[in-house]
Write a structure and sequence with these properties.
The protein has a 5-stranded mixed beta barrel. The chain contains no helices and 9 strands. Helices cover 0% and strands 51% of the residues. It has strands at 3-12, 21-24, 30-33, 41-45, 55-67, 77-80, 86-88, 96-103, 112-123.
């Protein structure tokens, strides 16, 4: 059910698992797997992932498939967990969380779910 509108190729600054949320790496050409909801997330790795130094396609807009890191409800905004998986966004009061997008289906840990990429920031 993925329908990427814009995919860009980067270099993996570290190993990136397939279907994971990524952030910028050490420079303009590198990305690494996101590890927190506060990371400057930019997109989602494709179905292949990549080893350190390998090329990787990152979905920057459209509907991307993302591995879930917990229970997610359809229509919920999601962010990255410590493993780059999508989890429901629920910031504490005064805390900012960066969002990757909106889950198109409900699911649980390990499911691969379509997420509409809609980068933004939410404050609790």
């Amino acid at each position: 059910m993925a329908n990427p509108l814009f995919t860009k190729n980067f270099i993996a600054g570290a190993a990136i698992t397939k279907y994971r949320i990524v952030k910028f790496g050490a420079d303009d050409d590198h990305v690494i797997q996101a590890s927190a909801s506060s990371d400057s997330i930019i997109g989602v790795s494709d179905s292949l992932g990549a080893g350190t130094g390998e090329r990787v396609d990152i979905v920057l807009s459209g509907i991307a498939e993302i591995e879930l890191g917990g229970s997610v409800n359809r229509g919920t905004v999601v962010t990255a967990d410590s493993n780059g998986r999508a989890v429901q966004c629920s910031p504490s009061t005064g805390v900012n969380q960066r969002l990757i997008g909106i889950s198109m289906v409900g699911g649980t840990t390990g499911d691969i779910a379509p997420v509409l990429i809609a980068l933004s920031v939410m404050q609790g």
